[in-house]
UniProtKB/TrEMBL annotation:
It is a lipid-anchor. This is C2 domain-containing protein. InterPro entries: C2_dom (IPR000008), C2_domain_sf (IPR035892), C2B_Copine (IPR037768), Copine (IPR045052), Copine_C (IPR010734), VWF_A (IPR002035), vWFA_dom_sf (IPR036465). Residues 27-161, 177-301 form the C2 domain.
Length: 579
C-alpha cells in the first residue's frame, strides 16, 4: 500500500511505545497517534486509476450516434455527491472506450460508493473543455453505482455494471437497462521497492528531571508547499539517550523517490502530546544509504531564533543508520488480485451485565422502530466493509457468556443454534441469528474471550494447513472487562502465527482500561504463561464511546491497521502473490 511499517510488526500503525528493543518500554501510544494525525499522517491508502468503457449505449442523436462522456462521483452516506473526475468525449460511439483515467484514493477501512453517469454531449459543446461543460445542458444516457471494494476484489480488477435510467418515451418510473459500463482499476504505484532502515542516535539531550528522555523518530517527506508530511515513525524507547530502534520500512513510492528530501525528527515523548524536539536532520533515502555504508553519524540540529532571524544550532547528538537494505514489497491489492480473501467472523457477548434484552435500557434491546443497538451497529458497520472481500459471504458467528436452553453456561456457542456448524449467510444472517439467540438463551457470565479466540484460531490454522488463500478477521463485541486475561493472552500469542486479526469493540459504560493491554498499540507485546512473546500485533481494541461523535468512525478506528497486519503475516511467512 506504499506506507511505512515497522518491520516484523503491525505495519504502518504499529505501536509507538508498544514494542521495542527494551523490555520495559511501556509508553502509551495515543498521544503520538494524535500528534502524527494532526500533521497529516493517516492509515494505509493507495491511489487507484479507473479505466472506463461501455457497451450498447442508447442512441440519442438523430443523424449520428451519441457522443458519450462519463462523470464519476463519490456518494456519501447522506446521499451527497462529490465529483472526482470526467472522461473525454468520444464522438459517434455506442460502445466507447475512454482514454482519460479517473483517479481516486482507496481507503480499505471505508465504504466508498461510486456513481457513474454517462452523458451525451450536444454537438454545440464539442469544442468546450470537459470540466467546463454544464451537465444540466447535456442528456443523461444512464447511470450505474458500485462500491470501490467490489472493483478491487475482482480477480482482474474489472467490474461490469448495468447502466440504468428512465426511458424518455414513457411515463413509467421503472428503471430500465440502458447499456453496460465496465470499470477497470489499477494501483498507481511508481515503485514497490521498500527500504528497510535501522536508526540509532547518540548523546541525545536529556529533557527529564528525574529520568532520561523517552525518544522516538518521525520521518516526514517535504512536499511542494514546503510542508512536511509524516510517512513513518519508530517506537518510543524509555529512559534512553543512546537509543537503537527496531527496523522500519519506508516505501520509495511513499517517500516520492530516493532523492526526495526527508526530515528525520527525534522527539522526547510526553503523554500530553506536546513532544519535545531533541533534534533533526534532512536527508534523502539516497543520503541515508550513504550514511549506512560509510558508518558515519550525522549531527542533528534544532532551529533557533536570534532576533528576527531563524538559524540552526548544530548539536552534539548524532543520527546513525546502522542498516539500509531494499526489497520488493507486494501491496495489499496485489494479494487481492491474486485471489486472497478476508473471511469475517463475529463473537457476541451475552453476559448478564448487558441487561435484560426485553427492557429498553439493555444494550441488547431490539428497538422495534428499527434503530440498531450498539451490537447490531458494530456488526452492520464492520460487516459492510469486510463482506466485499469474502466471495461466498458465509460467516462464522458465535455467542459467549450465556446459558442455552436446558444447558450449562457456554463461552462459545453457535449463534445459529446449530450443534454442527457456526456459519450463517451474509450480514443479514448474522443479524437474524443474533436476534433469535436473544430469545433462546439466558444471559449469564463471566466474560471469557479465550474459547472464541481459540475457535477462530482453529479455523485459521486449518485454512493455513490447507494452503487456502484466506485471512480471517474476528470481531468481538463486549460490554465488560474479561475475567480470563491470562488465558486470553495465551490464545492471542498462539494466534499471532496464524492468518488472523481480532477486532474488539467495547460497548456500554464499563471501564475498559484493562482491555487495552491486549492491543499492543497501547502496551507491551503480549506474553504467554510459558514466556512466549507474540510474533506480531493482531488486536485492535476500540471503546465505542471514545469514537462516537469524533472525526473518525468506529469502523475506521478498527480497520485502519488491518491491511498492514495482513501484509506483516504474509511477509513473515514469505507468502507472495503468484506472478
Amino acid at each position: 500500500m506504499g506506507n511505512c511499517c515497522l518491520a516484523g510488526d503491525g505495519g504502518g500503525q504499529s505501536a509507538v511505545g508498544g514494542s521495542s528493543s527494551h523490555p520495559d518500554a511501556n509508553v502509551p501510544n495515543d498521544a503520538v497517534e494524535g500528534f502524527l494525525k494532526s500533521r497529516g499522517y493517516h492509515g494505509l491508502y493507495t491511489q487507484i486509476e479507473l479505466s472506463l468503457s461501455a457497451l450498447n449505449l442508447r442512441d440519442r442523436d438523430v443523424l449520428s450516434k451519441s457522443d458519450p462522456m462519463v462523470v464519476v462521483h463519490t456518494k456519501g452516506r447522506d446521499g451527497s455527491l462529490q465529483e472526482i473526475g470526467r472522461t473525454e468525449v468520444v464522438l459517434n460511439s455506442l460502445s466507447p472506450q475512454w482514454i482519460k483515467k479517473v483517479i481516486i484514493t482507496y481507503y480499505f477501512e471505508m465504504v466508498q460508493t461510486l456513481l457513474f453517469r454517462v452523458y451525451d454531449i450536444d454537438t454545440q459543446f464539442h469544442g468546450v473543455e470537459e470540466k467546463m461543460l454544464k451537465l444540466d445542458e447535456q442528456q443523461l444516457l444512464g447511470e450505474a453505482t458500485c462500491l470501490l471494494s467490489e472493483i478491487v476484489t475482482k480477480r482482474d480488477r474489472t467490474l461490469a455494471i448495468d447502466l440504468v435510467g428512465k426511458e424518455k418515451s414513457t411515463s413509467s418510473t421503472h428503471l430500465k437497462k440502458l447499456g453496460q459500463l465496465k470499470v477497470h482499476a489499477e494501483e498507481c504505484v511508481v515503485s514497490k521497492t521498500t527500504a528497510e532502515l535501522v536508526f540509532r542516535c547518540t548523546d541525545l539531550e536529556n529533557k527529564e528531571l528525574f529520568s532520561k528522555s523517552d525518544p522516538f523518530l518521525v520521518v516526514s517527506k517535504c512536499v511542494e508547499s514546503g510542508n512536511a508530511i509524516p510517512i513513518c515513525k519508530t517506537e518510543v524507547l524509555k529512559n534512553d539517550l543512546n537509543p537503537l530502534w527496531k527496523p522500519v520500512s519506508i516505501s520509495i513510492s511513499r517517500a516520492g523517490s530516493k532523492e526526495t528530501p526527508l526530515i528525520i525528527e527525534c522527539f522526547n515523548f510526553n503523554s500530553s502530546g506536546r513532544h519535545d524536539l531533541l533534534g533533526k536532520v534532512q536527508k534523502s533515502l539516497a543520503d541515508l544509504e550513504k550514511l549506512s555504508s560509510g558508518g558515519q553519524g550525522e549531527h542533528m540540529f534544532v532551529p533557533i531564533s536570534i532576533g528576527k532571524d531563524q538559524q540552526t544550532k548544530v548539536l552534539k547528538s548524532r543520527l546513525f543508520v546502522d542498516k539500509y537494505s531494499e526489497s520488493i514489497h507486494h501491496t495489499f491489492l496485489d494479494y487481492l488480485d491474486n485471489g486472497f480473501e478476508l473471511s469475517f467472523m463475529v463473537a457476541i457477548d451475552f453476559t448478564a451485565s448487558n441487561g435484560n434484552p426485553r427492557l429498553p435500557d439493555s444494550l441488547h434491546y431490539i428497538d422495534h422502530s428499527g434503530r440498531p443497538n450498539a451490537y447490531q451497529k458494530a456488526i452492520q458497520d464492520v460487516g459492510e466493509v469486510l463482506q466485499c472481500y469474502d466471495s461466498d459471504r458465509k460467516f462464522n458467528a458465535w455467542g459467549f457468556g450465556a446459558r442455552p436452553i436446558d444447558g450449562p453456561v457456554s463461552h462459545c456457542f453457535n449463534l445459529n443454534g446449530s450443534s454442527g456448524h457456526s456459519k450463517v449467510e451474509g450480514i443479514n444472517g448474522i443479524m437474524m441469528a443474533y436476534t433469535s439467540a436473544l430469545f433462546n438463551v439466558t444471559l449469564a457470565g463471566p466474560t471469557l474471550f479465550g474459547p472464541v479466540i481459540t475457535a477462530a484460531a482453529r479455523i485459521a490454522s486449518q485454512s493455513l494447513a490447507a494452503n487456502e488463500k484466506k485471512y480471517f478477521v474476528l470481531l468481538i463485541i463486549t460490554d465488560g472487562v474479561i475475567t480470563d486475561l491470562q488465558e486470553t493472552k495465551d490464545a492471542l500469542v498462539n494466534a499471532s502465527d496464524l492468518p488472523l486479526s481480532i477486532l474488539i469493540v467495547g460497548v456500554g459504560g464499563a471501564d475498559f482500561k484493562e482491555m487495552e493491554v491486549l492491543d499492543a498499540d497501547k502496551g507491551e507485546r503480549l506474553e504467554s504463561t510459558t514466556g512466549r512473546v507474540a510474533t506480531r500485533d493482531i488486536v485492535q481494541f476500540v471503546p465505542l464511546r471514545d469514537v462516537q461523535g469524533g472525526e473518525m468512525s468506529v469502523v475506521q478506528s478498527l480497520l485502519e491497521e488491518l491491511p498492514s497486519q495482513f501484509l506483516t503475516f504474509m511477509r513473515n511467512r514469505d507468502i507472495r502473490p503468484n506472478p
